[in-house]
Amino acid sequence: MQDPKGTKNPESGGNTMFLNAALAYQELSDYMKKFLSKLKAVHSIVKTITHDELLDGNSLKRFNIMNEKLPPIEHPIIRTHPETGKKLIYVNEIFTSHIKGLNINESDAILEFLYKHLHNPNFQCRFIWEKNSIAFWDNQITQHFAVGDYSSLRVMHRLTVDGTHKPY
Questions:
Q1: What is the CA radius of gyration of the chain?
Q2: Quick check: 137 and 144 in contact, CB under 8 A?
């Protein structure tokens, strides 16, 4: 279905899943909260590029420009929301490359644990898009992804408010 503003929803599917990273943090054991609170993870655009894209000259050039503008950055794995004061898990599968100071096996094991923990259905909700739907979420405490269960075109308009807070 297409509306006059150019958005288009698939006939079925194409929902968005949202997860609450503060609720996920609350459900960690006290020991795990303390352990993770001392760690920092590196977030990098590097994780978003595929091996085939690295072999393509145009993609590599575009990637190098993106990497220069958005270099890898360290963030605490457990951060505090600047407005609510809630603690939350601050890693994601798309951008988090590794945990600083750990060897790759240790880092991968802890990150896999966190990703699995974050995907617990108890921390998630499903937003079902309909004509004229509007969704608002706080990127500082929420992760989201489109459910890839549709084959027709999905077109939406998104507005993002630029944050001013460095994660702490």
A1: 18
A2: yes
* Residue carrying structure tokens 């006290």: 30
Phi and psi torsions of 37, nearest 5°: -65, -15
The mean of the pLDDT values for the chain is 84
Structure tokens at 158: 């998104």
The tens digit of pLDDT for each residue in 69-114 reads 888 899 999 999 988 999 999 999 988 999 999 999 999 999 999 9
Q: How many domains does the chain have?
A: 1
| Residues spanned by the domain of 31 | 20-123
Q: Does a structural domain hold residue 109?
A: yes
Closest CA to 72 of 116, 40, 102, 50: 40
Tokens of 138: 């706080």
CATH of the domain at 116: 3.60.130.10
pTM: 0.78
Instruction: Give a yes or no: residue 8 inside a domain.
Output: no
Tell me how far apart the alpha carbons of residues 143 and 48 are, in angstroms, rounded to a whole number: 16
Residue 128 main-chain phi, psi, to 5 deg:
-100, 115
Q: What is the DSSP letter of 125?
A: E
Q: What is the SS3 assignment for 113?
A: helix
